[in-house]
Each structure stands twice: as C-alpha cells, then as structure tokens.
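Good morning C.,

I know you're traveling, so I'll keep this short. The sequence:
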Amino acid sequence: MDEFLKKRWHEEMDERRSVIVVDNEETILSLIREIFTSHGYHCETAPSAVIALELLSRRNFDVMVTDIVMPGMDGIELTKAAKSIRPDIAVIVMTGFVEDFTYDEAFEAGAADFIKKPFTEKEILMRAMKVQQQERLLAMSITDELTGIHNRRGFFAFAERLLMIARRQKKGLFMLYADLDHLKETNDTLGHREGDRALVDFAHVLKATCRESDIVSRIGGDEFAVIPIGTTRESVEAIITRLEKSIENHNATGKRSYRLSISFGVSYYDPEDPCSVDALIAQADRMMYQQKRLKRNLS
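The tokens, ready to paste straight into the viewer:
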C-alpha cells in the first residue's frame, strides 16, 4: 500500500478500530483478519451468523464484513439482526454471486456497502474507510451536542427500525419517556449553565443504567426517551428501580447545587396492534403527566 494511503488510513482509524468478519470459509476469515490486523484493527471472526450475533451481543464493533451465502441465517438476515442489536455498526456485505442478489436487498437490510469477491487488500480497506466516514457523519447528525446521547432525529430513525423488526418478529417492547423535573426553576435561579449540567448529569445516569444496545435519547429540551426499555413488565420494573436508585446515589454523592428528579411514563408496542413512534410517545407522555399531577398533589 502506498504511503499516502497508509497515512490517510491511520488518520481515519485513530478512534475506531474494531471489526468483525463473518464467513463460513476459514480461508476467507484468515485472509481478511490478516488484512485488518496488519493495519491497526482489532479483528474478530465468526464462521456463522449465530456466532456473530453472540459476539455482537457482548461487545461493540465499528464494522461488520459478512458474506451473503452462509448455511442457516444468510448475510442479509444477519445484517438486519446485527443492526437491531448494534444500530450504529457499519456493515459491508460481500459475495461472489452478484448476479443472484441486488444492491437494494443489502441496503434495505441496513448495509452501508457491497463488495464483490475476489477483492484486493486496497479495495476492502478503502471500503471500510468509506463506511466509517459515513457512520461518523451520521453519528454527528443524530447526536445531541450537549449530552452526547442520541438526539430526536436519531431516536426516530432507530426507533422506527426497531418497531419494524418487532412487528416482523411479533415481539412486543416497551419505551420509557422521562421529563427532568424543575429544569425551568434551575435555569431561572441558578442560570442556564447549571441547567445544562443537570441535563448532562441525567443523560449520563440514564446511559449508565440502560443496556449498551438501548437507544437512549434526548428528544426535547428536558425530555428523554429510551427504546427498548425492556420486553417484559418485570424487566421494565427492574430497570426503572435501578434508574431511581442511580438518581438517589447521584444526589447523595454529587456536589451540584441542585437535585435530579424525573417524571416518567412507559408505553408498550404491541406487534398485534402496531402503532407509530409518535403514538408511543403520546401514550407515555399521558402517563408521565399523570405522575406529575400526583407529585403536585402530594407536595
């Protein structure tokens, strides 16, 4: 590889250096693993989609390179499943049978690029660089600048995909909608800088409480949403209990001049009676305001 490409490659890879390669041919796995590891990537391989999904459930990868034709779950179905677990992973689909597949199939599944076997070392490295650049730009557009979690645009993009998958798989899921209490009073009495700190603090508590694969977002000024917050009522109750304890610990050990307090509502997506993301938010919003009214009546 020429010196210009090496320099550009390493500049692009400074922050994101993790790839998973999926193929049922060991020779292909070994070849691609050698290419990526020799250029600074941490690379893991999986001989099947099932093993790949197990790895994805345990850790995050920046890029997944997967063959289409594999026994059992093929690369298209794997891409759909991988994007449901890790929505921000960049997927490159590869095949030696281009005439049997279309670009549309790969991209509709969530792939960022498509590569034909056989390919050169330079080609697969450049394609990996390109999809990482795309994901970086996408991440900037869907990230809340203040808190570092997803913004409203990101939440809707990922939530709509999750609901589509839930409907197809006939699996229900829950969404949490939370409002940071007393933010206006904090802004009015302590200043907007302190109000911003309250938002950042709660975003960090919320992110630390939820699973890495959950879509944690700030969708308004003081409004936050998480999807999926769980798939059973028991799991939802456990997470909410953990969140409340985390807020208590933050207030007890923190050195801020304010206390975090939230009101929240939980809504359920029923695949047998599907609804939109907006409808889920409206359902949870009604529950949240019931909680706010109850707090006011008790105070």
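Safe travels,
E.
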